[in-house]
Amino acid sequence: MLDRALRAAGAIARVGVWASGALFLVAALVIAVDVTARKAFALSIGGSDELSGYCLAMGAAWSYTFALLHRANIRVDALYKYFPRPAKAALDVVALVALACFVAVVGTYAFEVLASSVRLGSHANTPLQTPLWIPQAIWLAGLAFFLVTLFLVTLKSLVLLAGKDYAALERLAGLPSASEEVEEELAGAKARMVEPT
Fold first, then answer.
1. pLDDT digits (tens, 9 = 90+) for 53-76
2. How far apart are CA 86 and CA 53, in angstroms?
3. What are the φ/ψ torsions at residue 143 (nearest 5 degrees)?
4. Which residues, other chains included, contact 10 with Cβ-Cβ below 8 Å and sequence gap of 6+?
5. Of 3, 89, 148, 196, which has the maximum CB count within 10 A?
């Protein structure tokens, strides 16, 4: 059941990261059009900085889960690589728990910000007058999904740690080795070469 939940989280994360990428592209396009219009015609479409800020916050929050599940998050590993496998596994679990605690704190404050915006009927102090609860709710949903997935990964890691399945725990939550990263890049390159054009 835990594996099925993680697979479902992975599928949702994939959609989230693609949507986030699309948001970033839209934000870049709007900024490019705005800058070009300012230079060429001395006029501004307005709101590009506001919209790009929303896109960044929402896109980042919805990308965290994908990074977690693909072990793309950055961790300091100066000493980690020299530890024996059981110690690495324990540190991986500690890192997950610490990250979950941090995200829970951030999520709590994000919820308070959203609740305040809803209660006060807050709008952006810009020409767009965006109701702030809309981007804040999407941002909070991304953080909440990340926290739930983080809980599932931590729970699965604890099960693997208890069963002394260090190899599986490393594949789930450990730092990818240089050879794993090279293999992943090669597999991606081969897949792109096979795709029909």
1. 899 999 999 999 999 999 887 777
2. 42
3. -65, -40
4. 69
5. 89
